[in-house]
Design a protein that fits this description.
7 helices, alpha/beta, about 260 residues, 10 strands, four-stranded antiparallel β-sheet, six-stranded mixed β-sheet, 2 domains
C-alpha cells in the first residue's frame, strides 16, 4: 500500500496501560507507538492476554485510563465517538428492534429525517445481502447475518475508522470467509481505516495492509510486517508461497 500521499489519521504515542491486582501492579501494555494511515487496514495479533482488545478499547475511547497519548485526526481521544465505529466479538444488536431499526439506530439519534434514514438503511441492507430481512428480529437471524447487521449499523454512520475486535471468531469457517470478503468489499466502497484484532494469522494477513505483532504480557510491539498483495484479494492467496512465508514468520514471532 502506498502511504506516501496519505495522512496519518491515528497516532498512538508511548501508550501504557496497567491496573492494580491487590498490592501488585499489572502492566498490560507497555510503550505502544503506532501510526495508522487514512484508508489503511492494520491487523493486530498476539498471544491471549497480551492486550489486543485493551489497546482497541483505548483507541475507541472506551478505556481512557492510560499513560501516553492517543490522537485521532489530531485530537486527543478520551471518549467514544461515531467517527470511530466499533465492531465487537458478538453483534450486540438490540433484540427488540428489527434489522432496519438496528441499522438506522445511530442515524435516528442524529435527528436525520425518516426518509433519509429509510434510504440509507435500504442501501446498506442491499450491500450486506439481506434483502427481504428488514423486518426480521436478531433472534431469527444466523450468527453471520447478525454480524452483517452489526457491520452495516456502524458503516451507515460513515466512520473514518472501524475498530474490529475479533468480529468473526464465533463463526464457522465458511461464514468467516464470507464476512472477510464482505468487509473488504465494503472497505473498497467506503474506505475507512480499519484496525482488526484477531487470533487467526491467516485472517490477519488476508485482511491487512500491515500486521502488528504484540508480545506476551506486557504487550509490546515486536514486529510490523507490510502485506503487499494486490487488492481485491481472494481466497487463492492463502496457498501463495509468499503468503505461507509471511505466515511462518509471524508464527515464529508469536512462539518466541
Amino acid at each position: 500500500m502506498n502511504n506516501l500521499k496519505k495522512d496519518v489519521i491515528l497516532s498512538v504515542k508511548n501508550l501504557g496501560i496497567s491496573f492494580k491486582n491487590g498490592k501488585e501492579k499489572k502492566i498490560v501494555l507497555d510503550d505502544i507507538n503506532l501510526d495508522v494511515i487514512e484508508g489503511e487496514i492494520v491487523s493486530i495479533i498476539g498471544p491471549s492476554g497480551c492486550g489486543k482488545s485493551t489497546l482497541l478499547s483505548a483507541i475507541g475511547g472506551i478505556n481512557n485510563s492510560f499513560d501516553g497519548e492517543i490522537l485521532f485526526k489530531e485530537e486527543k481521544v478520551s471518549t467514544p465517538k461515531s467517527d470511530r465505529g466499533y465492531i465487537f466479538q458478538r453483534p450486540a444488536l438490540f433484540d427488540w428492534m428489527t434489522v432496519e431499526d438496528n441499522i438506522g439506530y445511530g442515524l435516528k439519534l442524529k435527528k436525520i429525517t425518516k426518509e433519509e434514514i429509510s434510504s440509507k438503511v435500504d442501501e446498506f441492507v442491499k450491500e450486506i445481502g439481506l434483502d427481504g430481512y428488514k423486518k426480521y428480529h436478531p433472534k431469527h437471524l444466523s450468527g453471520g447475518m447478525q454480524q452483517r447487521v452489526a457491520l452495516a449499523r456502524v458503516l451507515v454512520m460513515k466512520p473514518d475508522m472501524l475498530l474490529m475486535d475479533e468480529p468473526f471468531s464465533a463463526l464457522d469457517y465458511q461464514t468467516r470467509i464470507e464476512m472477510q470478503n464482505l468487509t473488504l468489499k465494503l472497505w473498497e466502497l467506503y474506505k475507512p481505516s480499519i484496525i482488526f484484532v484477531t487470533h487467526d494469522i491467516e485472517e490477519a494477513i488476508f485482511m491487512a495492509d500491515r500486521v502488528i505483532v504484540l508480545s506476551k504480557n506486557p504487550g509490546k510491539i515486536v514486529e510490523a510486517i507490510d502485506i503487499d498483495f494486490e487488492r481485491p484479494r481472494n481466497i487463492e492467496i492463502l496457498s501463495n508461497p509468499k503468503f505461507m512465508e509471511i505466515k511462518k514468520e509471524l508464527l515464529k514471532k508469536l512462539i518466541l
